[in-house]
Structure formats: C-alpha cells, structure tokens
Specification:
Blueprint lengths: L12 H11 L2 E6 L2 E6 L10 E4 L7 H6 L2 E8 L8 E12 L10 E12 L2 E4 L2 H6 L9 H11 L3 H5 L5 H4 L4 E8 L2 E8 L2 E8 L10 H24 L1
Parallel strand pairs: 3-6
Antiparallel strand pairs: 1-2, 1-4, 4-5, 5-6, 6-7, 8-9, 9-10
C-alpha cells in the first residue's frame, strides 16, 4: 500500500516553461512601457507556437537592449481552487521575422532571458535547457482532463484522497485536482485556514497522453486497496 506525502517525480523548470508555452491561450506583451493582452488561440483552438532562437554573433548588448520585448504568461489552475495561479513565466528577447521551416506560424524571439516563478521560488532557465526539454504530453489536454475528473467523476476524488497521509486528511474541507503532468496528479487540500498540495505520482512516467487512463486506474486500484485494508483494520 502506498501512502503519499512527498512530492515524487516532478517536471524540471525547463519542462514547465515549455509546457506553459505550449498551452497558454494568452500572453501579455510589454513594449515601451505599454502592456497589450494578446490571444494565442489559433483556428484549431490550440496555442500558436513561440520559436526561441539564440542571439547571433555581432549584435551588441546595446542593440538588443533597445529592441527588447517582454512576454508574460500566467499558468492558472483550471478548477476554482484557492490561489489558482500555479506559475508565472517572463520571457525577454528581440522579436524576429520567421526564419526557418515551421516558423511561418507563431512568433520568433531572439532569446534573452526566461524566469519561472512558482510558489517555491524563482528560477532563471537558460536557452540550452529549454531547447533540450519537451512540453508535457498532457499540456494541451490537462484542463479538460482535470475538469472531467472533478465534474464527471467527482466520486473518484475522495477515493484518491485515501492515498494521502492520514494527518494531512484531517480537517480537509475540500479536495480538488489541481494539476496533471507526465509524472503524476496533484491534489489541492483546502482547510479552514489554508491549503496544502499533495502529489500522487504515477506508477510509470507518461510518454503520451493515451497513457493517462491506465495510470489513473492504477492509482485508483491502489486507493481501493488502501480503503479495503483500512476497513479490515478497524473491523478487527
């Protein structure tokens, strides 16, 4: 029986940045002191891509500073939990025209800096790590899956709560699925005076979205065994 209280596996900062860029439906553009809200939703309903490029040789720091643009992204939990902002991403760089295959759609940016801010702190993520990382396979489906789990199968959330340490379950007013990624599911536990997040790691890391169903069923099977053993213990 597995009872979870530790974080388990979790995405790297670079993976988080790539996931936000793949899924964020809007962004704020800051240029010359002005802020413009921009929708990134394409005709197919997905976010238009953002292509990051290294700074070419021969550009001075002054040239880049004069033409720098700042893009801000906010990662918000799909469900109405407390403190719904899960992360903020700030990208700075110089806008570029499309300059290669596959860049005709979306925007190109000469990379300057990427700063990811989460409840655990701020991290500057270098370009080489971003180019080596991939967005989460559930990035564009997370909101729909979490909403379906909470609204269409609300009886499963209390069952998953059986996987949380008993001390953390005391005085819980509400439990909501907060986040979903290739490594596991995060539950937000809300108390009268605060909240606490618990990750339920999958048995295996996901490599594509179709693996989510079997991994969720594996978690539920573990939760049912935990519930059954608890009844046997209290009934003996």
């Amino acid at each position: 029986m597995r009872i979870f209280s530790s974080p388990g596996g979790r995405p790297t900062s670079a993976e988080q940045v790539r996931t936000i860029l793949a899924s964020a439906q809007s962004m704020s553009l800051l240029t010359g002191g002005d802020r413009t809200e921009i929708s990134r939703t394409g005709a197919d309903g997905t976010a238009s891509p953002l292509h990051l490029h290294p700074a070419p040789d021969g550009h001075t720091g002054t040239e880049r500073e004069l033409s720098t643009t700042t893009l801000e992204f906010t990662d918000i939990a799909p469900l109405p939990a407390r403190s719904r902002v899960r992360a903020r991403l700030t990208l700075t760089g110089r806008p570029l025209p499309p300059n290669g295959p596959g860049t005709e759609t979306g925007r190109c940016l000469e990379f300057g800096r990427a700063v990811l801010t989460t409840p655990t702190g701020r991290t500057s993520v270098p370009l080489d790590e971003l180019l080596a990382a991939a967005p989460d396979p559930l990035a564009t489906r997370e909101a729909g899956l979490l909403t379906h789990l909470a609204d269409g199968h609300e009886h499963l959330v209390p069952l998953l709560l059986r996987l949380v340490e008993p001390r953390l379950r005391r005085h819980v007013r509400r439990a909501l699925p907060l986040a979903l990624d290739r490594y596991g599911l995060t539950l937000r536990l809300e108390y009268p005076l605060g909240h606490h997040d618990v990750r339920l790691p999958f048995h295996r890391r996901l490599h594509h979205a179709d693996q989510f169903g079997p991994q969720l069923q594996a978690l539920l099977a573990t939760a049912r065994r935990a519930s059954h053993r608890s009844r046997l213990f209290h009934g003996s």
